[in-house]
Amino acid sequence: MRTFRTLSVASLLVFASLLLLAGCAGGRPSAAPVPPFLEALEVWPDVYRQNFEKIRSFTGKARLSVESEQFSGNVSMETNWINPERLFLKVEGPLGLDVGQIFVGANRFIWYNQYENHFISGSVNDPYLNRFMRTNITFADMKYNVLGYAGNWEEPLQLRNGMHGVFFTQIEDIEYQYLVNPETGLLENYEARREGRPFMRYDFKNYRVIDGIYVPMIIQITMIDQKERITIFYTDIVLNQPVDLQKLTIQIPSKVVQLNVNE
């Protein structure tokens, strides 16, 4: 039976949460009105994917906010992404304190917690990570979460309501619903539902057009049952410019502790 993949929303939430607990030019988009994304709503799924496929590299600076019943807080995050196989995140706490870094490649990942001086590495699809992180973690999909891309549907989308811009697809007992603004053609939110009840929700806000590519500057991810939410507020984004590969390197000192996810 197919296990629902949360697109690694929970993995990013856990990553940000642990980091918060541990740490208790030319790319700036204009604020000009965003032109309509498309003219015919029926073609939205194809146009949405084509828009994302224009991105060869992504560099962004953001504020990451975490809200849950246990704690809340903010950190600064730098995103470097190269299509399609490499993501590097660097998180800083107050006063520029280096808190953590994570690299996700095609098959491997490494997560370095600088504050507590330990790291985890392994396969992006390691089944033991679910138990270790207490979530349906998929680091491979995190490479798209942080960009605000929700186009990894496995089955074709169907237009349910043209007046309100509602698309959906069904996989076993999970329904995925996409709400597209009929006037602008922009994706406003995305929900995963079981028996008609949403348990995960993405919201995409404050779109900008950067070098002809539409990107959301605010990405809000809510795990409804857990009452947990993270929000990424991008302040600067640069697209399709060469990325310094040194920025994708994690320097780990010799005395760092490696955690074993199999235990």
Features:
outer membrane lipoprotein receptor (LolB), chain A; globular; 263 residues; 43% strand
Verbal overview:
The protein has 263 residues and is mainly β. The chain has helices spanning 9-23, 44-53, 128-133, 139-145, and strands at 57-67, 72-82, 86-92, 98-104, 108-113, 118-123, 158-161, 166-171, 174-180, 187-194, 197-210, 213-223, 228-239, 257-258. It is globular and about 60 Å long. It has a 14-stranded mixed sheet with strand order 7-8-9-10-11-12-13-1-2-3-4-5-6-14. It is built from four helices and 14 strands. 31% of the residues are buried. It has a single domain (9-258), classed as Lipoprotein localisation LolA/LolB/LppX (outer membrane lipoprotein receptor (LolB), chain A).
